[in-house]
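Think of the structure tokens as a kind of shorthand, similar to the way a musician reads notation: each symbol stands for something richer, in this case the local conformation of the backbone. In the example below we present two proteins back to back. Begin with the first one, reading the sequence and then the tokens, and try to describe in your own words what changes along the chain.
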Amino acid sequence: VQLVESGGGLAQPGGSLRLSCEVSGEPFSTTSMSWFRQAPGKGREWVSTITPDNTIYLKDSGKGRFTASRDNSKNTHYLHMSGLKTEDPAMYYCTAGSDCFGGSYCGAPRGQGTQVTVSS
């Protein structure tokens, strides 16, 4: 499976970003997709999971601010982030299947990730 993340960048506190993850080599429409993040010097932190039937699970700190979506016609998974806070900066990665599902163990990143920076 190949995962290509994009959409990160610099946002102001309270701002928004939409991250994208393009997936190939995986039966995307029947695969759960997750996002996790890793800040310098910290461990991997699960952010969200979306199942094939569009059930969404979110880390408590992201509820009300983040949501996930998927476009099966584009084999692309999204993380919509709003109300960005100073604790959100990290490299964000997507992953597939049982990896990181619903907050379970997140394995090593398989894509290059996309950097999110929050600063005024």
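Once you have a description of the first chain, move to the second and do the same.
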Amino acid sequence: VRLVESGGGSVQSGGSLTLSCVASGFTYSSYSMAWFRQTPGIEREGLATFARDGTISYADSVKGRFIISRDNAKNTLSLQMNSLKPEDTALYYCAAFRTCQWCFSSKPDFRGQGTQVTVSS
């Protein structure tokens, strides 16, 4: 099983980035997927989920700025991030859940290593 993120980098405040996650080794369409971010010393923060039934949800901190999407034919998950702020600086990673009622507080079945996003003011 592999989840590999890409698309991170450095951007100025107000800019945009699109992250991608490529999954392999499991039946992607049968899993709910989510994006998280992690900052040293701070508990992980759930950002967006795209459930296997097509339901999408966002954390309040990113609602209206980030857009999650998935392509089951290509086993990919994306996160379009707009109007980035310095406080969005973190390691971003994707995660897969076979089942989760509320993915943000559940332990994923699989997760990637992450891609770093740095937003400067």
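Compare your description with these statements about the second chain. The longest strand covers residues 42-50.
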